[in-house]
Write a structure and sequence with these properties.
Radius of gyration: 19 Å
Mean pLDDT: 83
Distance between the termini: 55 Å
Strand content: 25-35%
Order of helices and strands: EHEHEEEHEHEHHEEEEEHEEEEEH
Shape: globular
Low-confidence stretches: none
Number of helices: 8
Strand order of the largest sheet: 2-1-3-6-7
Structural class: alpha/beta
Helix content: 25-40%
Oligomer: single chain
Largest sheet: 5 strands, parallel
């Protein structure tokens, strides 16, 4: 009888790691969580050290994305199942690359199905090929679904200039000067859009770095191409400047 498959969970939220570990213990007894990590840097070292069969990987974390983690590994010789709060429309894009994706909060049935796929012993070379496709195409996911009072609006991600929190709603400002009020919090869209060049400069503001026009060092603010001037919160300033170096390499 074959032994259990080794699993590693990489997520910057302790509650999310604990919840997933409990689900695996309850519903997927063939998988043993051998380690956890709270971010990209720790995740890289943990994966190299433990050599898991599968990694449950959050998409966006405090020190980078799941894609950043994968790109820093010398080789990918394990299965990957992404877990995040992405809208289901975006999840389809991941699955086009045949890489499994679990939407938070994770449902036991979906977790069981994902683990069953891993148990089918897919060739490592095939896993690497699928991840390469996903990595090369991740920025070409085109649309996001915005739930409004009247229904749903499909918007090209590249047309979103910025998002602003309005209580439990989020207002989207688009390139054509149109704005849309959406019945979801900014926090949800922060996680959804961060892998695509967006940065939350303030608790109430998420900006698309592609539309950044000017950074005002003295004022601690940014000016967007639509003319909006947005203050950067003090605690996010260092991360923002580091993000600029990555997004706009010299």
């Amino acid at each position: 009888m074959m032994g259990k498959k080794k699993a590693v969970i990489v997520d910057d939220e302790a509650k999310a790691r604990a919840a997933l570990r409990q689900l695996l213990d309850s519903y997927c007894p063939d998988f043993e969580v051998v380690a956890e990590a709270s971010g990209v840097a720790e995740g890289v070292q943990t994966i190299i050290r433990t050599r898991p069969d599968i990694v449950f990987l959050d998409v966006q974390m405090q020190d980078g994305s799941g894609f950043d983690l994968l790109s820093q590994l010398p080789q990918i010789n394990f299965n990957v199942i992404f877990a995040s709060a992405y809208d289901k429309f975006a999840i389809r894009a991941f699955k086009f690359s045949a890489v499994d994706f679990l939407q938070k909060p994770i449902e036991p049935e979906e977790l069981i199905q994902a683990c069953q796929k891993v148990s089918q012993q897919i060739e490592i070379s095939e896993i690497s090929s699928k991840l390469e496709v996903l990595m090369s195409n991740r920025k070409s996911f085109e649309k996001i679904v915005l739930p409004t009072m009247d229904g749903f609006i499909f918007v090209n991600i590249k047309d979103i200039v910025r998002c602003e929190a309005e209580s439990n709603y989020t207002r989207f400002f688009l390139q054509n000067r149109r704005d849309i009020l959406v019945s979801k919090t900014l926090r949800e869209f922060d996680e959804m859009l961060s892998p695509f060049g967006f940065f939350r400069v303030h608790k109430s503001h998420l900006i698309n770095l592609s539309y950044l026009k000017e950074y005002l060092r003295g004022d601690g603010a940014v000016i967007m191409e639509d003319g909006a001037e947005i203050l950067i919160s003090r605690r996010r300033k260092d991360d923002f400047l580091q993000c600029l170096k990555t997004f706009f390499p010299k």
